[in-house]
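Exercise 7. Given the encoded structure of a 165-residue chain, write a plausible sequence.
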């Protein structure tokens, strides 16, 4: 389903013995929502910027969003995410965005990682969120004072032991 405005979801992920709660704001990428998107990524620690691997224009729009994001949040880690991998994997559509071009761009902007996913099959989705949580946990251990994410609002919880914690 397409996002209209913004949608919110939460997911718990265990990393290195700690349970992290990822709060995810899914903002619509169309131009008509551009002016309101800034409120969702204010003070963001990490952001996933998605593009369709079968649509070159969507990658150009992703570059625009990254530029917009980094102009306000210079320390935000960007994770580039190619979507609809299932379409090219099953031969349904040709790839329009070269993977190496994406990794070159990621190096240029110092993005944390590049992922390709499929919402339809779930391929790569867990790995993407796990990497974000893992990076967050590492930074918290070395004393990063960020208050979580704007796009990803994360909290550490103590892992409960037994039935009564």
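Solution.
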């Amino acid at each position: 389903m397409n996002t209209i405005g913004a949608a919110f979801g939460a997911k718990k992920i265990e990393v290195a013995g700690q349970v992290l709660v990822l709060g995810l704001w899914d903002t619509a990428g169309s131009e008509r929502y551009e002016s309101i998107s800034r409120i969702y990524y204010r003070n963001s620690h990490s952001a996933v910027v998605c593009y369709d691997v079968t649509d070159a224009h969507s990658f150009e729009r992703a570059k625009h969003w990254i530029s917009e994001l980094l102009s306000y949040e210079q320390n935000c880690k960007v994770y580039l995410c190619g979507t609809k991998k299932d379409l090219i994997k099953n031969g349904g559509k040709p790839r329009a965005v070269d993977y190496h071009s994406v990794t070159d761009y990621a190096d240029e902007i110092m993005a944390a990682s590049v992922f390709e996913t499929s919402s339809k099959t779930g391929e790569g989705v867990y790995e993407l969120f796990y990497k974000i949580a893992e990076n967050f946990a590492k930074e918290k251990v070395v004393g990063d004072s960020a208050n979580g994410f704007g796009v990803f609002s994360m909290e550490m919880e103590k892992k409960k032991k037994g039935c009564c914690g």
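Remark. Residues 142-165 have pLDDT under 50 and may be disordered. Students should compare their own answers with the one above.
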